[in-house]
Amino acid sequence: MDQKLFKSLCKDGKFKEALGLATQGREQEKFTPSRFSIDKKTGLPIFYRGNKRVEADETGEWHLSKNTKF
After folding, report:
1. Which DSSP string corresponds to 26-60?
2. N or C: which end of the chain has fewer CB within 10 A?
3. How confident is the chain (70 residues) per 10-residue block, as mean pLDDT?
4. In the prediction, which pLDDT does 19 show?
5. Residue 4: enclosing H or E segment and its boundaries?
6. Which contiguous run of DSSP H or E holds residue 64?
């Protein structure tokens, strides 16, 4: 995912397009995110599937987050 393009889409208010960019090509996976928020400290997106946090691994496949420090 291109972080610069993602941030510019969010800045322009095109949130559905930004989420589509993040999930491009993997829309049918079990843990594909349905929403996201932006971390205020780092400025990076945090993705969620329902109320569970998800993240992409190095191959781009979506999994439940193993990070316990939110």
Report:
1. -TTSTT--SEEEE-TTT--EEEEETTEEEEE-TTS
2. C
3. 89 93 87 93 91 90 79
4. 93
5. helix 3-11
6. strand 62-64
Quote the CA–CA distance of 55 and 61 in Å, as a whole number.
Answer: 8
Burial 22-37 (b: 16+ CB within 10 A, else e): bbeeeeebebbbeebe
Q: What is the pLDDT of residue 43?
A: 87
Long-range own/partner contacts, residues 14-20 (CB < 8 A, 24 or more apart): 18/45
Going by DSSP bridges, is the β-strand pair 45-49/35-38 parallel, antiparallel, or unpaired? antiparallel
